[in-house]
Design goal:
OB fold (Dihydrolipoamide Acetyltransferase, E2P); Helix Hairpins; D-amino Acid Aminotransferase, Chain A, domain 1; 34% helix; NAD_DNA_ligase_OB; EC 6.5.1.2; alpha+beta; DNA replication; DNA damage; 24 strands
Length: 713
């Protein structure tokens, strides 16, 4: 490359990196990923190493961060807050020396600097937090001042905000409190506190934060420390820069233990035994990376320091970093990429989930091409569109998700019109909308009022829901087909023998006998159980259909008011499949059923509005499924139970829950699953929980088992 090309490239890199630095450290609004920043920074370092004569005075390799915010008083650091050089690893390489080549090169430089090429160096290791570095000053054991890193020489005075951190000691304790102590550490936000903050922000309709680091930065830079106090920041110490009036420990590990005794929060990993040699260091890196997702805070790598402070002083510093320490970074958990399309997936229960198809990107140690968008509301909240550049996050084995959109990179188009004086820019793509038809079976997609999840209504025939539908259909409380367990259902569906529940009644003994772990006797027993299931009750049959929001109790109420299942079909007759009036008529009839509200009525109507669902029901009836006519249980006119609502909770001494329920219903009562002001009796057994507490609060009559039996008698 020519000198002019070198110079132009270096000037371009310096300008870009300084801009990215300002956006990240001052505005808390990065427009480039950490991985991309690191790549450009390393390119600049390489160019400056090859052509030191072209190095620019404002190169970011000279400094650590960005200038302090003018809103805060400036603080000049007595000891500069330097950064660390980085090491990266190729986790697919073998052996470990090749996988962690840059780490081994660091160790080689350390041993050479110490004249200890033949011996192992002892290292202290600790997590590399993803937060904000601060310096804390204590005089005679009392907290006096806190400052951010800033540009490494001058930082921002954030004393009042740091004072609100509950874990931070405002007065040190112990027998070795120095007259002056300056401690370096990290302000961050624990994951659970971050999630709590974002939930609160969303409830208030305010901006949610992209990650805990941004949340911590925004909280620490509040001009009103009362706001900071509500944000639950945390602090962990990681080193000492100045000590007066006390003997400073000889090693870094002893220093961390000393800070802990003085009252500073110190992460357990900082107090672990030191590591002998670089092989142990590499093993620690892989160990903590495997546990990364389990930690209560975000980390983006591990920091290693030569443990002996005398050796640290011999090794010294380069312009911006110590020679005795290095930051070994993990593969980025967040990366930037483009959304190529937004598609939908159908879950086993019919839930429709939007999924972003991405331009492949390496994040969290793997190449990611898909990321969940959770639900329609999340897509709208984040305003994710096809063509957008997005931040993708993958932590451990967690499914990758789209965290946010980089709006500065959104593709725009110019729009001109007769009524416009000048052309205006608008987004190239329109906002995404949930499709109204299932991508698998073509059924209607509905989103019940008050729910975040949209669902496919073709539960009986949609192939995405097939296994779950058949398992539920055969379950004990539904059609009670003994021997038809989950694994057997999976085999039958995977072989294509069962596509709807009606196919169960067409299975042949000779086919079943050839399946894994299924002989002739087992096949005969299963077919006998399937045959026996044809004689059932209408409530069981309705429950077996898997209609959303229709449980056993609701199925029983429906059976009493619709004794012929075809009474539920009017909205789906071929000549009026799209007839809104037919749906309205059925809805009105359903709402006349006690305890059937608008949500249940809508679920029933949507289910039977799918012609394929009706076709499956008719197929089941044609296979021979039948039941006696359902009649409401009779009860004496003066029965104290008739028309009363009961709730069962806890374990009764002799009656099972089902037995107690059956006796109450036989006497004309009704059993509900939740306590409300309309509940007449709560029957409480051993280990009764929140239902009993709510009943007591509402003044509902409480019965034990003897009291229930006396009432029924």
């Amino acid at each position: 490359m020519s000198t002019d090309n070198d110079k132009d490239r270096m000037e371009s890199l310096v300008e870009r990196l300084n801009r990215y630095n300002y956006e990240y450290h001052v505005e808390d609004s990065p427009t480039v990923s950490d991985a991309e920043y690191d790549r450009l920074f390393r390119e600049l370092q390489s160019l400056e190493a090859a052509r030191p004569d072209l190095r620019l005075a404002d190169s970011p390799t000279h400094k650590v961060g960005a200038a302090p915010l003018p809103a805060f008083e400036s603080v000049t650091h007595a000891v500069p807050m330097l950064s660390l050089n980085n090491a990266f690893s190729d986790m697919e390489a073998e052996p470990a020396e090749q996988r962690h080549a840059e780490l081994f090169q660091f160790d080689e430089r350390v041993r050479k600097g110490l004249g200890a090429e033949g011996g192992a160096v002892r290292y202290a290791a600790e997590p590399k937090f993803d937060g904000l570095a601060v310096s804390l000053l204590y005089r005679n054991g009392v907290f006096e001042r806190a400052a951010t890193r800033g540009d490494g020489v001058t930082g921002e005075n954030v004393t009042e905000n740091v004072r609100t951190i509950r874990s931070l000691p405002l007065r040190l304790h112990g027998d070795t409190v120095p007259s002056l102590l300056e401690v370096r550490g990290e302000v961050l936000m624990l994951r659970e506190d971050f999630e709590r903050l974002n939930r609160h922000q969303a409830e208030l309709g305010e901006k949610v934060f992209a990650n805990p680091r941004n949340a911590a930065a925004g909280s620490l830079r509040q001009l009103d420390s009362r706001i900071t106090a509500t944000r639950r920041l945390s602090f962990f110490a990681y080193g000492v820069s100045r000590v007066e009036g006390a003997v400073r420990p000889d090693t870094h590990s002893q220093e961390m233990a000393w800070l802990g005794r003085l009252g500073f929060p110190v992460v357990p990993e900082s107090l672990r035994p030191v590591l002998d040699g670089i092989e142990a260091v590499a093993a620690f890196y892989e160990s903590i990376m495997a546990r990364r997702a389990e930690l209560p805070y975000d980390i983006d790598g591990v920091v290693y320091k030569v443990n002996d402070r005398a050796q640290q002083e011999r090794l010294g510093f380069v312009s911006r970093a110590p020679r005795f320490a290095i930051a070994h970074k993990f593969p980025a958990e967040e990366a930037w990429t483009e959304v190529e399309s937004i598609e939908t997936q159908v879950g086993r229960t019919g839930a429709i989930t939007p999924v972003a198809r991405l331009k492949p990107v390496f994040v969290g140690g793997v190449t990611v091409t898909n990321a969940t968008l959770h639900n329609e509301d999340e897509v709208a909240r984040k305003d994710v569109r096809v063509g957008d550049t997005v931040v993708v996050r993958r932590a451990g084995d967690v499914i990758p998700e789209v965290v946010s959109v980089v709006l500065a990179k959104r593709p725009m188009v110019s729009e001109a019109g007769a009524d416009l004086v000048e052309p205006v820019l608008r987004p190239r793509e329109m906002p995404w909308r949930m499709p109204d038809r299932c991508p698998v079976c073509g059924s209607h997609v509905v989103r019940p009022e008050g729910e975040a999840i949209a669902r496919c209504t073709g539960g009986l025939f949609c192939s995405a829901q097939r296994k779950q539908a058949v398992i539920h259909f055969a379950s004990r409380r539904a059609m009670d087909i003994e021997g038809l367990g989950e694994k057997l259902v999976e085999q039958l569906v995977d072989l294509g023998w069962v596509k709807t529940p009606g196919d169960l009644y067409r299975l042949r003994a000779e086919d079943l006998a050839g399946l894994e772990r299924m002989g002739e006797k087992s096949a005969a027993n299963l077919l006998a159980s399937i045959e026996a299931s044809k004689t059932t009750t209408l409530p069981r049959f309705l429950f077996a259909l898997g209609i959303r929001n229709v449980g056993e109790s609701t199925a029983r109420d429906l059976a009493r008011h619709f004794p012929d299942v075809e009474d539920l079909f009017p909205a789906c007759r071929e000549d009026e499949s799209d007839d809104a009036m037919a749906r309205a008529r059925l809805t009105d009839r359903l709402l006349a059923v006690p305890d059937v509200g608008p949500i249940v009525a809508a679920s029933v109507v949507e289910f039977f509005a799918e012609p394929m669902n009706v076709a499956v029901v008719r197929d089941l009836l044609a296979s021979g499924i039948h039941w006696p006519m359902e009649t409401a249980p009779s009860a004496p006119a003066d029965s104290p139970v008739a028309g009363k609502t009961f709730v069962l909770t806890g374990t009764l001494p002799t009656l099972t829950r089902d037995e107690a329920k059956a006796r109450i219903e036989a006497a004309g009562g009704k059993v509900s699953g939740s306590v409300s002001a309309r509940t007449h009796f709560v029957v409480a057994g051993e280990a009764a929980g929140s239902k009993l507490e709510k009943a007591l609060a509402l003044g509902v009559t409480i019965l034990d088992e003897p009291g229930l039996l006396a009432l029924l008698a």
